[in-house]
Design a protein that fits this description.
The protein is an alpha/beta fold. Helix 4 links the parallel strand 6 and strand 7.
């Protein structure tokens, strides 16, 4: 099978050893794109517009505020490409620094959380606590949003129709590439639908068992060449 579109997760996938990218992998991807491989982009930077933009229902975050406020989590809110928090903490500062995104502290939480336009909410907490928080939030969120684990210590509230699978299908159609000619690569629960939607799904070796079982291939570990070795095997026309 000839693949033309490569859709990759970032943290835990391309950034397998954060915060730095594997320079050999970056060089390989650059050469592959020069040879015609399409590498996923969610935003059309040249036109300065979103190709696909979804937000949480207005007022939903205020609706579940009590659960968040009493849970052992540090909440972060993405709105209009900005990152906000209700209180600064070491976990929040570390996330902001790792993502290199400026952080703004909000004082009037009620007015803020009643607004619309939130792309997602990230809750940072201990892996042992987040399943309970997820269960409590599900009762308040219902079908209005999705709750997904993006890392063992990250729980996200995202729009109900938002998924990397939907984004992959949208992007493939936008670029006129059949889904059978796409590759989706990820390492967490929120990558599962992308892996299932793509013509070839690839899971990182550290991915949960459910993600690895859904994938057609599992990438070798970093010490065995990682993604670059796998890309050279399955995409020789671009990487060899």
């Amino acid at each position: 099978m000839s693949y033309r579109l490569l859709v990759c997760d970032l943290d835990g996938t391309l950034l397998d050893h954060p915060p730095d990218l594997d320079l050999a992998l970056v060089d390989g991807l650059q050469r592959a794109m020069e040879r015609g491989l399409l590498f996923t982009i969610v935003r059309d930077h040249e036109a300065g517009r979103d190709l696909m933009a979804l937000t949480l229902p207005r007022g939903l975050l205020w609706q579940v505020h009590d659960v968040i406020a009493h849970a052992p989590v540090d909440p972060l809110f993405y709105r209009d490409d900005q990152l906000y928090c209700l209180a600064e903490s070491s976990a929040v500062r570390r996330y902001s620094e790792e993502q290199r995104v400026p952080l703004e502290v909000i004082d009037a939480s009620g007015d803020f959380l009643r607004m619309g336009g939130f792309a997602k909410t990230l809750l940072i907490g201990h892996p042992a606590a987040l399943p309970t928080v997820r269960t409590e939030l599900r009762a308040g969120v219902g079908d209005a949003a999705r709750l997904v684990m993006t890392r063992t210590d990250y729980l996200e509230i995202i729009p109900s129709v938002a998924s990397k699978g939907a984004a992959t299908r949208f992007l493939a159609e936008h670029l006129s590439v059949p889904l059978t000619e796409t590759i989706g690569i990820g390492d967490q629960e929120n990558d599962l639908e992308m892996i299932e939607a793509a013509g070839l799904g690839i899971a990182m070796p550290c991915a949960p068992e459910t993600v690895r079982q859904a994938a057609g291939r599992v990438a070798p570990p970093h010490e065995q060449g990682g993604l670059l070795a796998l890309f050279t095997e399955i995409l020789p026309q671009y990487f060899a």
